[in-house]
Amino acid sequence: AAKAAGRNQWRFFTADMHQRVSQRLALETGLRMALEPGAQELALVYQPQIDTATGRVMGLEALLRWNHPTLGPVPPSTFIPIAEDSGVIELLGPWVLREVCRQIDAWLEGPDAEHFAGLTVAVNVSAAEFARPQFLDHLQAAVQALRASPRTLELEITESLLVQAAGDIIERMHTITEMGMGLSLDDFGTGYSSLGYLKRLPLSKLKIDRSFLLGIPGNPENEAIVRATLSMAHDLGLMVVAEGVETAGQRDFLQAHGCNACQGWLYARAMPAHELAAWLRQQHEAMPGRSPRAAPQP
Ligand code: C2E
Ligand code: MG
Ligand code: MG
Ligand code: MG
Asked: Are 287 and 56 contacting, i.e. CB atoms less than 8 angstroms apart?
């Protein structure tokens, strides 16, 4: 009887495994199809980053969306790891870079250009992608096609890249900042890397992970972590962006402790490119003194 039960368990286990593997395979195949020309399943949405002190929009973060033809929207937390493991990231990463560069030029050369002037656009780059030898070539090609200044672009990398921070990764980071782009460290505090790298790498920003904002104000542990991060980052000359700011209480705490920028649903959700112009116009009209339109017309 024990043997039979064991066999049943085994069969159950394999059925479950099989299902998960085939689900991943289906998503991997789906992603490859989504990258075919004309598929129109992939799109970028953009979330504003707000200067905490002035309330002005400082920049945008590009976030990838995938609308699967039968499954509907698949979240990046599901498909990005699959893209990384399967190697599809080799195609997906360059697609995102090209699309962001195309969008930046479209904005800066379009009718609402004044509202996009001076904004940075951040792009997430997977560690698996950044570490590939071809990455720099793809980046250089995208930036060459970009008519706007490369200073418009920022790359968001994560600590998982730094765990394997071999000399060539660090060298690559320097090459990127020498090209004019900013480097931000995303999800700060969630990885397992040492803090020593912070002084050796050409980073310009730290992004405090959303998980540390939970229960703020009021959660003494998270408050201590956020205060310590801000103090350390500022002493090292890094700007700090808080992500996942949802409440006025969080914003007030971050402002009181000198956090440079906030990104979160309190201010705005990520939105499609075409909605952004109207949103920015409205922001600038609500702050007439700071509106680019208030500047004397030539
Ligand atoms: P991330 O780079 O840390 O992006 C921030 C995530 O927090 C986004 O989730 C954003 O929609 C979400 N978020 C922003 N404000 C709030 C808030 O106030 N409350 C809550 N609950 N969430 C908020 P999203 O778009 O689902 O992306 C998840 C992750 O997927 C990203 O985390 C990033 O690691 C990855 N990702 C997204 N787009 C790309 C991409 O184009 N390339 C790569 N390699 N990774 C990407
Ligand atoms: Mg990010
Ligand atoms: Mg160029
Ligand atoms: Mg993050």
From this structure: yes
Is pLDDT of 6 > 80? no
Which residue among 135, 154, 243 is best mutated to probe the pocket of ligand 1, counting the most ligand atoms within 8 A of its Cβ? 243
Query: How far apart are the C-alpha atoms of 64 and 44, rounded to whole Å?
Result: 5
CA of 289 to the centre of ligand 1 (A): 32
Scanning the chain, the segments in alpha helix (DSSP H) are: 2-34, 76-86, 89-108, 113-116, 127-130, 135-145, 159-163, 167-178, 220-235, 248-256, 273-286
Protein residue closest via CA to atom 5 of ligand 1 = 243
- Letter string b/e over residues 211-226, b meaning 16 or more CB atoms within 10 A of that residue's CB: ebbeebeeeeebbebb
Locate 32 and state its tokens.
């490859």
Report the nearest-CA residue for atom 45 of ligand 1: 124
Find out whether the peptide bond into 133 is cis, omega within 30 degrees of 0: no
β-sheet bridge partners, residue 64: 44
Residue with tokens 């996942």: 244
| Cα–Cα dist 44/97, whole Å | 10
Distance (Å) from CA 215 to ligand 3 centroid: 44
Total residues found in the chain within this entry: 298
Residue 213 Cβ < 6 Å to ligand 1:
no
> What are the tens digits of pLDDT across the range 150-199?
999 999 999 988 876 678 899 999 999 999 999 999 999 998 778 888 88
Percent of the chain with pLDDT strictly greater than 90: 81
Would you state the structure tokens that stand for residue 176, as one six-digit string? 């990127």
For residue 56, pLDDT beyond 50? yes
**DSSP 3-state assignment of 263?**
strand
> At residue 194, what are phi and psi to the nearest 5 degrees?
-80, 160
- Let me know if 172 is exposed, middle or buried by CB neighbors in 10 A (0-12, 13-18, 19+): middle
